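HOLO CASE FILE
Compound: zinc ion
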Amino acid sequence: MTDISDTFFTSIGCMDGRIQSAVASFGKTRFGAKYPDTITEAGMVGILSHKPSKAILNGVKNKILISVKHHHSKGIVVHGHEQCAGNPVSDDQQIKDIIEAARVLKELEPGVDIVPVFIARKNNTWKIQELESASFKKTAHVLNLY
Ligand SMILES: [Zn+2]
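Model generated. Tokens follow.
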């Protein structure tokens, strides 16, 4: 079980270890929550954005429900990144896949705040770029830099 002071957000994205601390610190700022519940696959947004199977969707949904119901998650960050081995596409396509994955997750969990982000490598650090989240349009632009 959790202590009353434990606060959570939900991280859904790639398993790549290089990006996890950037996502964790982004979520702390963006959601005011201390701990990320982390749901990963190699190239997660590539999977979610290309007609995922019911089994994959149910697995992700089950983890989201645990994060939301038991940890009272303050929101979901869905992320993709540069140099992704699991979803090896151009940055433009990666961003489209992130937005589409956000749309799929919104259908899965309409009541939860979902924030799509792209993570770019800049001088050996990984920088979060928050993408427009209002309507999950196909053409995303960078909203905020962290
Ligand atoms: Zn990756």
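CASE NOTES: The chain has one domain: 8-145. The first strand starts at residue 8 and ends at 14.
CLOSED: yes
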